Amino acid sequence: MNTPIPNAILRSSSVTPAASLPPAFSLPMFGSRVPAGFPSPAEDYIEKELDANELLVTNPAATYFVKVSGQSMRGCWVRDGDIVVVDCSITPRRGMVVVAVLDGEMLVKQLDVGSAGEPLLKPSNARYPTITVQEGQDFLIWGIVTWSLHRQAHS
Amino acid sequence: MVFAPTGSFVSDSPKRLIALVDCNNFYVSCERVFDPRLRNRPVVVLSNNDGCAVSRSQEAKDLGIKMGAPWFELRHFERSHGLVARSSNYALYGLLSNRVMSILRDMAPGQEVYSIDESFLEMTGIADPLALGREMRARVLQWTHIPVCVGMASTKTRAKLANHIAKKSLKCQGTFNLESLTPEQEDRLLGKIEVGQVWGVGRRISDKLSRMGILTVRDLKRCDPDAIQDRFSVVLARTVSELQGIACLSLEEVAPPKKQIMVSRSFGELITTEEELREAVVHYVTRASEKLRQEGLMAQTLMVFAHSNPYREEDTQYRGARVIPLVTPTQDTRKLIAAALTGLSEIYVAGILYKKAGVMLTDLVGQDIQQEDLFAVSDSEGSKRLMQVLDTINKHHGRGTIAMAASGLNEQRWRMRTDLKSPAYLSQWKELRIAKG
Fold it and tell me: What secondary structure letter does DSSP report for B37?
C-alpha cells in the first residue's frame, strides 16, 4: 500500500512513437545481439544532433510563437513579419520586450514604468508614440519575448 | 494508494488529501487565450455543426444562456449584448489542455487526468495544501492564461464538492480545502448546497432523493450507505461513503488504454448520394486510423453507420449500421477503408437525406501483442512504414495533405460546418496569432 510510485510511471505518456517499436514479426532469438561482458565504450560518446527547440523553448508549457506586424519595434530587432518566441513564465521587468494585451489588442512593446508607477509601452522606433496605460483600461502582460526570428532567405 | 510526498513529510501516515483542479469555462477560456477581444464580454462556443452552446463565459451565463441552447435562439444577443460565438476548435483545446495538465503534473506527486479540463492530484503529506493550491492556480493562469479552481478534500467526491465551493464562493478566491472546516462549519455549508451538485447525482436521482426529503448535500451525507444501496444502487451508496470521508474511488494514475476510437460528424448539409457518403466515411476512417496508430493499437472490429436527421420529421427516417470483423488486427488505413466501404455499401439506401455518418474501431489490441493468423495476411513491414510516412507528412504539412483518393478531392459538402472557428494558433505556422509591433 505504501509503495511510492516511481515518477517514471506517473510521467510516462500513453503515446509511443511508432518508429521506436520493434518490428512485430522479428524472431526474438536472432533479433538482436545481446551485449555480454563489458559495455561498449563508444556508448558514452553518442551525441544527439542540435535541436532548435532546446535553445528557443526552455519551458514548453509556457512558450508560444506569435507573429509580428508593424515596424514600431525595429530598434529591438523585432520587425514586420518576424516570429517572436514568447515565454509566459518569466516575471516581467522594466526594459523587457513584452506581448501585452491592452483593451482587446495584442501589442509587442518594450515595458517601462512611468513616474507615478503607471505602466508604459514604449516603441523602439521614433516614428511611433509611447503608450501610457490609463487606469480602467484592460491591461495584461501576456508574456515576455525571449527571441525574435527574422527570415533572411528561403531555402 | 499512497504516494511518497515530495514536500515536507509530516508523519508516517499523513491524512489523505486529494485536489480536483477544474478549468473555468474551458473552451471559452481557450478562445480567450489568443483573442483578447473576447475578454469581459459574453462568449459561447458552439457544438459541431454550430448547433448549440457547449461552453459559456460567465457573462453569457449571466445573460441567462443555458448549456445546450441552440444558436438560432441566442443570435439576438449578438446585437443587444455583444455576444460572440465560436465554432469548437478541438485541436486548440486539446493542446492547451496538455499544457495545463503537464504544469499540474509537475506540481504534485501524483495525477489522474480525469477529462479535458479536470485533473485529480495527490496532495497527501503536503505541508500547506492551500498555499500549493493557490500556486497551481497562479501558475496555470500565468503560463497558459486559463483560469482554474482548486478544491481539496479527503476523497474524490468531497474534492469535487470542494471545487464547486471554490468556484461559487468569492471568499475562496478559487481555492478551497473542505478539510479545513470544523464539523459544525461543514454541516452548515453542506446544508446550503443542493443534493444535485454532488458528483454522480443526476437529475433523476436528485428528484427521487428530494421526494424522500433528502434535499441538501448534508442530508445525503447523513444517510446510511446500506439503506441507500437497497433503495438506489451501489454507486450512490459509494457516493455517500465518499461524502462521509471514506475513500471508495482510487486515483488512477495511468489512463486505461482506449477501448474504442470513434470518429463521426454531422454533415454541413444533408447528403444523398452514395459517392458523397463514401468520401465522408473514408475521411473518418483516415482520422480514426491515425488515432489508432498514435495510441499504438490495432483494431479487430470496425463499425460503420449512417443515419437521417431525426429532428426533420418530414424526412423518411433511416438508421443503418454494420459491424465488420477484421480477419487480423490491423492499423492499416487501406484495409480499414476497404472494410468500411464494404459495410457502407450494405447499409446505403438511395433516397434518404443523410445527416450523420461515422466509424468506430473496437476490439483494440496493442500492436506488439499480436497473434499471427495462420491463413490471414496481417500488416506487413511495408504497410507499417507507409502508414508512418503518411502520418509524418500530414503532421508536418497539415491534416489531409496526403489522403486516400477515395476521400474525394472536390468540394466536400459533408465536412463539419465551422464558420466561426478560430485559427490553429498552436499547430500551424501559417495561423499564428498576430501581435501589433
Answer: G
